[in-house]
Amino acid sequence: MTTGLESIYISPHLDDAILSCAGRIVREVAAGAQVCVINICAGAPDYSHLSAFAAELHTVYGDPTDAVAQRIAEDRAVIEGLGARVMNWDYLDAVYRHEHGHWLYPDRDAIFGPLHPADRILAGQIGERLAAFWRQHPHSTLFMPLGAGHHVDHLLARDAARWLLTTGLPGSDGRALRFYEEYPYIEEAGALAAAQAEIGPSHWQPEVAPIDVAARLQAMAGYQTQVVHLFGDQARELAAMQDPATWSAFVAAAHRQMVSRVERYTQSIGPSDPAAHHPFSAERYWSYAPQ
Length: 291
Ligand SMILES: [Zn+2]
Prior knowledge:
Layout: E1 7-11, H1 16-30, E2 35-39, H2 52-60, H3 67-82, E3 85-88, E4 98-99, E5 102-103, H4 108-111, H5 117-135, E6 141-145, H6 152-167, E7 176-180, H7 191-199, E8 204-210, H8 213-221, H9 224-231, H10 234-240, H11 244-269, E9 282-288
Parallel strand pairs: 1-2, 1-6, 2-3, 6-7
Antiparallel strand pairs: 4-5, 7-9, 8-9
């Protein structure tokens, strides 16, 4: 096992680390740091046995033969293109998870609802696996999602972070744990405060990291399958797919949306730094110190 990683980014899905932290990752790699992204929910399901909800999502993705493999390839191209490493763990995405023949999350409401009891055990298992990996990299910072937006896969990773905080690993021999703001969920009013309150009310310390927003946008644009879903007009997406000319206009509009929203968000963070003398683009990371 390679040692000496300086930053480990934990991504619930095959895009979250880059959508949320690409600016910082680009800076770290440019400064010579060893950076790794771990995708938690990168396991391939049994495609012959999908819930109605998962099948519907596959239709929106254009029914690829192997939807997960397609996203793994897309994600690897972006992350390795930035000069970072990527590891894919084989946990299933929430829409594919089942227990005793029952889907844990059979619809969209469930995906943004409470964590299923079976997943609370899974969060501890992921925490243990992360701890084992982290022990091999004693001078590294682990970046974990806050759970902003309340997607159950993000809550799973967040609860693994809480598990790590209670085991006492952070802070010992130079290790540190930071939470990142999940983009685009974090744009929703109140999402940050709600996520922080769920972890714990006390002593959140922000760290404002200046970024090159153009580099962040370039990395994000590599997720072609996701950009259209995240920034396109979802009500028009299926219809737009029927005609190549309409589709290319739809994709271009989604990209323009992404650029203006990311610029607005990253510029809103820069001025929150008390040391700032002029506006700049930034990402924000949080450390949590329970009393
Ligand atoms: Zn996600």
